[in-house]
């Protein structure tokens, strides 16, 4: 593990924090573009290849399972050698998985598609784990802002990706590939670039520097130093934060996965699908400019309640809107993305406040495993539920599930601000 050779001052720590955020922002801009491919066309590729709507949620489930395994590995590798290698290899693995999806569509191999989607999920996990890198050197009173800053750069690529579905499809066809392979070509390049940026530039490693800082503070027996950097270490906060993240993921994945299928069944164009998913993904990430500072200002309890109510509003809007209404599904998906964002930032802040420094990375990775696993289950069940009962029932059930977070957070201890 790389550490600084001289004692770390508060000014030097702040400088390294800003530098880390800049590098994470750059990598996340590319990482967001890779993330969008699976959301936009993964379900459509499976539907065309398997010929079944009921199985169209399988791609989301597969790359979410891959993300779960990667989240566990990133947490453990970070604990041993730091964020740089763990996050860099995660993105590179995601890029290789995206290339595999391209080959699978070309050769119409369902087996290769399933394997590649599983590997592609590494990029999804790495996108999420990168938000923790932004918090390593942040003061306690600014953890929410640090989380949101790391997340917001994902918006650039994540919004652009779905809106490039049609031109990327044309590029793929010019290369002799199926049109739906186009977004995965973009994902491969984007993830490989993101991984290369982190491996080459994220020096010194923020996680190992943060450990050095905490060791210095303990050695000096000065737990009242600038910015109240003592860890809360509350298991209850960790549990509630994990629950908020998991519920937000279940609702978002369940509804989002089936939206392209629902829209195509009502004769919406692929361009319209790209616009809806692009704005949805933008609503997932761009509000971080506001939600992170808001969490720091009013605390994660109130913002978590807002997340539950926003996800309920998304479910009701989708359920009550006619299938032919582009405006209705667009509003519902924007609300869905916004509710997910508020829930993720609030839940992550609770987890960061509640974890002890010596087990922080491993705990964060383990929580993201459950986060991804429940998302995978939502992806599978969403296709089955929609096939059996329809899109309206699916979205209404999701909205009701979101309300679980409200009593959970009201009964939790107050987090440090």
Description:
The protein is mainly α and 417 residues long. It has a single domain, classed as Growth Hormone, Chain: A (Up-down Bundle). It is 80% helix and 0% strand. It contains 17 helices and no strands. It starts with 9 loop residues before the first helix and ends in a 7-residue tail after the last helix.
User: What radius of gyration results from the CA coordinates?
Assistant: 20 Å
How many DSSP helices?
17
**Tally of domains:** 1
Q: Quote the CATH topology.
A: Growth Hormone, Chain: A
Biggest beta sheet attributes: none
Instruction: Name the shape in a single word.
Output: globular
Class from helix and strand fractions: mainly alpha
| CATH homologous superfamily heading | MFS general substrate transporter like domains
Give average pLDDT, whole number: 85
Beta content: under 5%
How many DSSP E strands? Answer: 0
Binned, the helix content reads over 70%
Distance between the termini: 30 Å
What's the CATH first level?
Mainly Alpha
Order of helices and strands: HHHHHHHHHHHHHHHHH
What is the correct CATH architecture?
Answer: Up-down Bundle
Low-confidence stretches: 223-232
């Amino acid at each position: 593990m790389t550490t600084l050779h001289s004692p770390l001052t508060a000014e030097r720590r702040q400088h390294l924090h800003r530098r880390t955020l800049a590098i994470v922002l750059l990598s996340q801009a590319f990482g967001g573009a890779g993330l969008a491919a699976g959301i936009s066309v993964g379900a459509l590729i499976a539907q065309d290849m398997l010929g079944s709507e009921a199985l169209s949620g399988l791609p989301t489930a597969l790359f979410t399972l891959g993300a779960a395994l990667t989240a566990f590995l990133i947490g453990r590798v970070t604990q041993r050698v730091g964020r740089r290698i763990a996050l860099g290899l995660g993105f590179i693995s995601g890029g290789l998985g995206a290339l595999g999806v391209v080959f699978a569509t070309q050769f119409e191999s369902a087996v290769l598609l399933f394997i590649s989607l599983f590997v592609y999920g590494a990029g999804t996990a790495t996108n999420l784990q990168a938000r923790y890198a932004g918090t390593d050197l942040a003061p306690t009173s600014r953890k929410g802002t640090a989380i949101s800053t790391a997340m917001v750069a994902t918006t650039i690529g994540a919004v652009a990706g779905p809106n490039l579905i049609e031109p990327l499809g044309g590029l793929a066809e010019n290369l002799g590939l199926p049109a739906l392979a186009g977004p995965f070509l973009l994902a491969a390049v984007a993830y490989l670039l993101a991984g290369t940026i982190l491996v080459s530039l994220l020096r010194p490693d923020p996680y190992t520097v943060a450990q050095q800082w905490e060791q210095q503070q303990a050695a000096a027996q000065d737990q009242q130093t600038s910015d109240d950097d003592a860890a809360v270490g509350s298991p209850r906060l960790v549990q509630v934060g994990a629950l908020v993240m998991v519920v937000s993921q279940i609702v978002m994945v369940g509804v989002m996965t089936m939206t392209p299928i629902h829209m195509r069944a009502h004769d919406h164009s692929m361009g319209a699908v790209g616009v809806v998913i692009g704005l949805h993904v933008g609503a997932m990430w761009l509000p971080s400019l506001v939600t992170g500072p808001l969490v720091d200002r009013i605390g994660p309890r109130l913002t978590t309640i807002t997340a539950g109510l926003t996800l309920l509003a998304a479910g009701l809007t989708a359920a009550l809107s006619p299938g032919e209404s582009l405006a209705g599904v667009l509003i519902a998906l924007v609300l869905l993305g916004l509710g997910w964002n508020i829930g993720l930032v609030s839940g992550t802040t609770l987890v960061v406040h509640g974890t002890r420094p010596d087990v922080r990375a491993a705990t964060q990775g383990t929580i993201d495993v459950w986060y991804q696993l429940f998302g995978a289950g939502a992806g599978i069940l969403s296709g089955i539920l929609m096939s059996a009962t329809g899109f309206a029932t699916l979205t209404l059930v999701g909205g009701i599930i979101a309300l679980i977070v409200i009593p959970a957070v009201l009964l939790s201890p107050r987090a440090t601000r």
